[in-house]
Write a structure and sequence with these properties.
By secondary structure, the chain is mostly helical. It is 55% helix and 8% strand. It has a 3-stranded mixed beta sheet with strand order 1-2-3, sandwiched between helices. Residues 1-24 form the signal peptide.
Length: 119
Amino acid sequence: MAWHTSLHLLIKVLITFFVRPRLADQLKATPVVVTSVKAGLCHSSLRREFTGIRRLFVDILERFFARTTKEGGRMLTFAAVGSAENPSDKLRGAYINLDQVDDPGDHADIAMFFLERFG
């Protein structure tokens, strides 16, 4: 695993467990809503310069697992403003996984597994 991938996983874990809850607590008296969002794999042009086997692999992943850019945007919007059932005040400090509030523990365990094995 490349160093930047390990760093990316480590930063995700740090944000999920330390930055998000602390910021949410410090900013609870303000209109700012702090959340951590996992929108999942979405179609985008960020990977447009991939070539060869990497391109083939990403194309297969996107074809079977990726959401549209619009669906990914809706998840980000949900995290920012909430919905009728979950107004933004209920989302303060939440970890949002695929349009619902979730426990970040399992996701961090997976990230730590990869860091320990391949980092």
